[in-house]
Write a structure and sequence with these properties.
The complex is a heterodimer of chains A (about 200) and B (about 210). Chain A is mainly alpha-helical. Chain A has two domains: about 55 residues, no CATH class; about 120 residues, no CATH class. Chain A has eight helices and no strands. The longest helix of chain A has about 40 residues. Chain A is elongated and about 105 Å long. Chain A starts with a helix and ends with a helix. By secondary structure, chain B is an all-alpha fold. Chain B has two domains: about 100 residues, RNA polymerase sigma factor, region 2, helix turn helix motif (Rna Polymerase Sigma Factor, Chain: A), CATH 1.10.1740.10; about 100 residues, Winged helix-like DNA-binding domain superfamily/Winged helix DNA-binding domain (Arc Repressor Mutant, subunit A). In chain B, about 80% of the residues lie in helices and about 0% in strands. Chain B has ten helices and no strands. Classes of the chains: A mainly alpha (about 200), B mainly alpha (about 210). At the A-B interface, helix 1, helix 3, helix 4, helix 5 and helix 8 of A face helix 1, helix 2, helix 3, helix 4 and helix 7 of B. Bound molecules: zinc ion.
Amino acid sequence: MVSACEKYGELMMKYMDGRLDDFEQMNLDKHMEACEACREDFAMYQEMLASFDHSNEEIIEAPEGFAAAVMEKVEDINIYFPTKIRNDGKVLDSVIMAVWGFLVATFVMGSALLLYNEAIFEWLTANGLGVIVAALQPIVDFAFGISSAIGGYTSIASGWFGTNISDFAIIALIIFVGLVAVQFYMSPKYAQVAAQIKKRRRKIM
Amino acid sequence: MVNEWFKVVTLLNYAKMTDYELVAACIEGEKNSFEELVSRYKNLVYSVVLRMVTDKEDANDLAQEVFIKIYRNLEKYSEEYKFSTWTIRIATNHVIDWRRKKKYETVSIDDEENTVAGGLMANSGASPEDEYIADEQSRMLRDLVAGLPDIYRVPIVLYHEQGLSYQEISEITGEPLSKVKNRIFRGRKLLKESLMNLRRGGESYGVGM
Ligand SMILES: [Zn+2]
C-alpha cells in the first residue's frame, strides 16, 4: 500500500505544478475516497498552494530611495575593470564632444543667420560689433548665392516657412533637430562598446 | 546648463539601452548607467530577498549589498544568461552567506517570535476578515518556509513565491533540472509535515532538520 500512496504523492506534486490532467485527477480522487492519509495530505497541499498563490499576487516594491542609497555607495567604489576598452576614453570623448559641439553650434548659428540675418546684423551693429558683421556678411552672401544657384528652392522653402510657421516654432525645430542629432550620435556607441567588451571578455576570462 | 542638458539626453539613452549595453557603459566608467540597472531590477532583488529573510530592514540592507556585489562583479556577467537570472543568483547566494554568518551569532528565540507577532499586529488593522485569514495563513507558511534549510528554501521561494520555472531555477542555482525538481518536491513534503504538526497542535514550530 505504501508504494501505491507514493505514486499518488507524485500526482499531488503534478497537481502543485498545475500539470495534472483530468484522467490523473480522476485516479487521484478515486484513491483518496479510500485512503485517509492521502486525503489529508492533499488537503494540506491545497492549502499550501492557496497560500503561495496569495503571496505570489502580492507586489513587493523596493523601499523609497533605494536606488539613491545604492548609488551613494557605488560612488565610493573605485574599481578597475580589466575589460575596459577606452582607457583614454575621457580624452577621446571630450575631443569628440568638442567637435560635435562645434558642429551643432555652427548649424544652429548658421540657421539663425540665414533666417534672421538682418535682425542679428542690426543688433550687432547697434552694439558696436560691426567687425563681426563685416566678417559674417560674405559667408551669408555666399550661402544665399548657393541657394539661388540651386534654383530658388530655398526661397520657396523659406517663403513657405515664413508664412506657415511662427518664429517660435522655427527655433523649437532647430533645437529639436540638434537634440535628435546628439541622440543619434550617442545611441550606437554603447552597442559597439558592448560588442567590443564581449570579445575582450572571451580573451581575458 | 549644457551639462544638465547632456545628462537628460544620456539618461534618455540609458532607458533605451539593453542590460548588456548598460553593463558595458558601467565598465567604461559611466557609473550613472548603473542607476538604470538598479531601477530595472530593484523590485525583483528586493522581493526575492524579502521572501527569504521575511524582515523588511534586513531585506533592505541585504538587497543594497546585493547591488554592490553586482557592481563589483559586472565583468563576470555573461550575456548568455538573462540579467535577471544572474541577479537572482547573486541575491540568493548573498542571503545564504548572510544566514550562515548569522548562525554564529546567538539570536534569542523570544526576539524572533516577537518580530513575527509584531508584524502580524501591524498588518491586521483594516483588512476584511477573510483577507486577514488569507494573509495570516500565508504569513504562517512564509515562516515555515523561512525555517527550511537553504537547499529547499531557495527553490521553493523562487518557484512558488517568485513564479519562476524549473528551468530558470536550474540556471540560477547551477543544478540540473532533476535535482531542482527533487528539492522542490522534498521541500513541499517538509512543509506539509510541519503544517500538519501545527494543525495537530504539535509543539514543533519550525521544520526540525
Ligand atoms: Zn494513499
